[in-house]
Write a structure and sequence with these properties.
The complex is a heterodimer of chains A (417) and B (91). Chain A has helices at 7-14, 43-55, 88-108, 126-141, 151-157, 185-198, 242-248, 311-324, 373-386, 400-403, and strands spanning 36-39, 61-64, 80-81, 119-123, 147-149, 173-177, 181-182, 202-204, 209-215, 218-224, 227-230, 234-236, 256-265, 275-278, 283-287, 293-299, 333-343, 350-353, 359-363. With 417 residues, chain A is an alpha/beta fold. In chain A, α2 runs parallel beside α6 (185-198) and α3 packs across α9. The longest helix of chain A is centred in the N-terminal third of the chain and has 21 residues, at 88-108. Chain A starts with 6 loop residues before the first helix and ends in a 14-residue tail after the last helix. In chain A, 53% of the residues are buried. Residues 412-417 of chain A have low confidence and may be disordered. Chain B is 9% helix and 36% strand. Chain B is built from one helix and six strands. The chains are: A alpha/beta (417), B mainly beta (91). The A-B interface holds A 241, 243-244, 247, 252-257, 300-306, 308, 310-312, 342, 345, 401-404 and B 1, 13-15, 18-19, 21-22, 36-37, 39-41, 43-50, 53, 55, 73-76.
Chain lengths: 417, 91
């Protein structure tokens, strides 16, 4: 049993200058055989291992990560959490995650800094207005909190937005989900890692998968940079690199991997206490607890694994930000980075069995996976443990691209996730 | 961002171009005779290669012509540019 984090442990450790904190997770060498191996130590992968151990009583699990945990898209996203998706299947999936977020810090005994500061989506033309009103109604029918705001109400909720009718894309209205917000992305990975480690999950970093060994139609194990690991169940949660892993097993996925960029400004005093997203001009912004503006840009349209993006994408995003928030015109940007997102044809994830027995994929989250982290882990763990999807992820099977029963969130949800 | 040598216009910034995805995917000659699996393969399944990928590009803000490119997707280095209908000049 690990020491619980509390005010008392904080005081106690202060006396020893914080030099005697117990390690949050071990650094074990891989065993020869596991009941299940999760490929990818990001938030989704670690959450999957956590729920496999906690709810399905599979304890002999390894998470293999080619770099360090949370060093991929978990640490590169803009931390927005919301569940106001149009279609029933998506609403069920993302709202399941949102419900877990609300108690996650208590459950993990790890402060993931979940902050329900609200997420606004702006409408800039009449079609946006119609789409967002439709989505508000659909959300309410699915039990998701949603409000439609007019321009004055938006100005009141976030006073720094330029609501002048004379800008190129005037703000005509927008939606607000008050239960939505942000969380500390690293803490989510670390919290799940600590929780999984406590239940006996081996978290193996710097361990890259090189091959997947198959015996006919089922899997036998993985070849890694730290040797061969025998297992009958492999859950792949490799985000932008999902196709690379699939290729090792002789599978093709309906995915394209593209760079998605984000940037943060120098830290300033609190100026924006919510998250504002705009589909039409493709800009979204929030402010971190450190005071930096966190700005999300769009994806490049070419396939790349380089974790870089094009400068003109950033330029376009900042143009939009400045038109909506003229107050930021002299703000300096501190850092810019890219992550590789795996985009599916319908912009919805794949949480699914495959044609190979014992091989499961959780991928295709594209530009919006962070918000789903707890729900994704929970449902993927269910799928792996039972060899059957949970009712909430049944629609997100890989066969929908054959049957045509897509969950088409392109255009339906905000493009920017 | 990188520079692309358009076979019709010469060197231009990548932002002038539109990526058209994986090249050499042939439209089925007899669409009515395809199974659902074959349709899915044609429509949705992609190699999404990390390494040398053959892909189509369009010089959207220039001559608006299509051409093919072999590019290393791990570092965005362009290995070859060749015309539509031609076979890739490298493996």
């Amino acid at each position: 049993m690990k020491n619980r984090y509390s005010i008392f442990s904080l005081i106690k450790n202060a006396f020893s200058y914080h030099e005697n904190w117990e390690k949050a997770w071990k650094d074990p060498a891989p065993k020869k055989k596991y009941d299940a191996v999760i490929v990818g130590g990001g938030g989704h992968g670690l959450a999957t291992a956590y729920y496999l151990a906690k709810k399905h009583n599979i304890k002999n699990i390894a998470v293999v990560e080619k770099g360090w945990i949370g060093g991929g898209n978990t640490g590169r996203n803009t931390t927005i959490i919301r569940s106001n998706y149009l279609w029933d299947a998506s609403a069920g999936l993302y709202n399941h995650a949102l419900k877990i977020w609300e108690d996650l810090s208590q459950e993990l005994n790890y402060n993931v800094m979940f902050s329900q500061r609200g997420v606004m989506n702006l409408a800039h033309n009449l079609q946006d207005v119609r789409d967002l009103k439709r989505r508000t109604h659909a959300n309410r029918l699915n039990g998701i909190d949603a409000e439609y705001l007019n321009t004055e109400e938006i100005k009141k909720f976030c006073p720094i937005i330029n609501t002048s009718p004379h800008i190129r894309y005037p703000v005509l209205g927008g939606t607000l989900q008050r239960r939505a917000g942000t969380a500390r992305h690293d803490a989510v990975a670390w919290g799940y890692a600590r929780g999984a480690d406590e239940m006996g999950v081996d978290i193996i970093q710097n361990c890259e998968v090189k091959a997947i060994k198959r015996n006919g139609d089922s899997v036998e194990g993985i070849e890694t940079t730290k040797g061969f690991i025998k297992t009958n169940k492999i859950g792949v949660v490799a985000a932008g690199h999902s196709s690379v892993i699939a290729n090792m097993a002789g599978l093709k996925l309906p995915l394209e991997s593209k760079p998605l960029q984000a940037l943060v400004s120098e830290p300033v005093k609190p100026i924006i206490d919510t998250v504002v997203m705009s589909n039409a001009v493709h800009a979204y912004v929030s402010q971190s607890d450190k005071g930096e503006l966190v700005i999300g840009a769009g994806t490049d349209d070419y396939i790349s694994y380089s974790q870089k993006g094009s400068h003109d994408i950033v330029e376009g995003t900042l143009n939009a930000i400045l038109e909506l928030y003229p107050i930021f015109s002299r703000m300096r940007m501190l850092r810019q980075w890219g992550g590789i997102v795996d985009i599916s044809p319908d912009a919805s994830p794949i949480i699914s069995k495959t044609s190979i027995k014992g091989l499961y994929f959780n991928c295709g989250w594209g530009t919006g996976g962070f918000k789903a982290t707890p729900g994704s882990g929970d449902l993927f763990a269910h799928t792996i443990a039972n060899d059957e999807p949970h009712e909430l992820n049944a629609a997100f099977n890989i066969n929908r691209f054959v049957s045509g029963d897509l969950v088409d969130e392109h255009g339906a949800a905000a493009v920017a996730h | 961002m990188f520079i692309i040598n358009c076979p019709f216009c010469g060197e231009r910034e990548q932002s002038e171009f539109k990526a058209g995805g994986e090249a050499h995917i042939e439209r089925p000659k007899q669409p009515t005779e395809l199974s659902d699996d074959e349709w899915a393969e044609y429509l949705f399944m992609r190699k999404n290669i990390k390494g040398i990928q053959f892909e189509r590009w369009n010089h959207m803000h220039g001559c608006r012509k299509w051409f093919n490119m072999a590019r290393d997707t791990s570092n965005d280095e362009i290995k070859a540019i060749y015309k539509i209908g031609e076979k890739p000049p490298i493996k």
